[in-house]
Amino acid sequence: MLELHHVLLVSVAMLGIGTIGMLVRRNAIVMFMSVELVLNAGNLNFIAFSRFLPDPVGQVFSVFVIVIAAAEVAVGLAIVLALYRNRDTVMVDEAARMKW
Amino acid sequence: MELLVFSILAGLVLAGALGVILARNPVYSALGLLLGLSAVAGLFVVLWAEFLAVVQLMVYAGGVLVLFLFVIMLVDLEQRGLDTDAGRIGPQPSAGWRIAAAMLGILFTAFVGALLLQEPARQVPGAAALEEVLRGGGAAGALGNLEHVGQLLYTSYLVPFELASVLLLVAMIGAVVLAHRER
């Protein structure tokens, strides 16, 4: 029998992996992929609560999360392209001119 | 049966997610992301959200992944993107910091795991009545019904829905402006 906390375990593991990826990787593209993992973990939580509460509003909100994720990827990857064009790199630690 | 399918899909999700952050080559990271996100779509089906599963596949596998791969191809002409020393940012931390960080991580994981593994409350108050209403048609998948979600989206959540479309337009214009090559 599937319970709420099974889904929450998967979701928290995905969130943790995504956070570690954001902190550890230097390639900006892979960092964006980690952000996608985190957003999907949140989405999975919305769907899980919508299934077990049960309340369809959770599904409506995860539609909004998907929209935000798509917009974020479009703008973020455009920034990565601009960075590559100006600096010839996508490694975040090589674009450190504004670092304090 | 439900739990078995869920476990397989959960394993695929975690394998894909680990592949994203462990692969050296960004293309393999993108393939790991594809595996993970497709398995999440499967989880959505298990959790009675069939419409969201289809949207997930179309938006991520069809759109976002292709965008990622395009950018990787554009950027990594000479394999510049290879993370040969993934995880090294700045000076190396001392052993004491490493041990402290590992302890904190284990503690946090244990804390969250203990919270989640506790016997959950069987029923949320009022849930039974609502479930009966939602299953009024008798179909088990009434919750994932496109009709149901669409009705909510176009009535109670109309304003956020329109705002989301404006956001997408702004993001599209912003992406074009940022990626545009100046002559």
Number of helices of chain A: 3
Q: How large is the radius of gyration of chain B?
A: 22 Å
pLDDT < 50 runs, ≥5 residues of chain B: 85-89, 136-141
Unreliable residue runs of chain A: none
Strand content of chain B: under 5%
By secondary-structure content and strand pairing, the structural class of chain A works out as mainly alpha
Helix content of chain A: over 70%
* Tally of contiguous helical segments of chain B: 7
Largest sheet of chain A: none
Note the gap between the termini of chain A: 53 Å
What helical percentage do the residues of chain B reach? over 70%
Summed over residues and divided by their number, the pLDDT of chain B gives a mean of 79
E-strand count of chain B:
0
Q: What about the largest sheet of chain B?
A: none
Order of helices and strands of chain A: HHH
Largest interface: A-B, 68 and 79 residues
Mean pLDDT of chain A: 90
- Care to count the β-strands of chain A? 0
Taking the alpha carbons of the first and last residues of chain B, their distance comes to 60 Å
Give the DSSP E fraction of chain A (strand runs of 2 or more residues).
under 5%
Radius of gyration of chain A: 17 Å
Describe the structure using short key phrases.
heterodimer, A: 100 residues, mainly alpha, 3 helices, 77% helix, 0% strand, B: 183 residues, 7 helices, 71% helix, extended
Q: Could you characterize what this model shows?
A:
The complex is a heterodimer of chains A (100) and B (183). Chain A is mainly α. Chain A is 77% helix and 0% strand. Chain A is elongated. The model of chain A has no long low-confidence stretch (mean pLDDT 90). Chain B is extended. In chain B, 71% of the residues lie in helices and 0% in strands. About 6% of the residues of chain B have low confidence. With 183 residues, chain B is mostly helical. Classes of the chains: A mainly alpha (100), B mainly alpha (183). At the A-B interface, helix 1, helix 2 and helix 3 of A face helix 1, helix 2, helix 3, helix 4 and helix 5 of B.
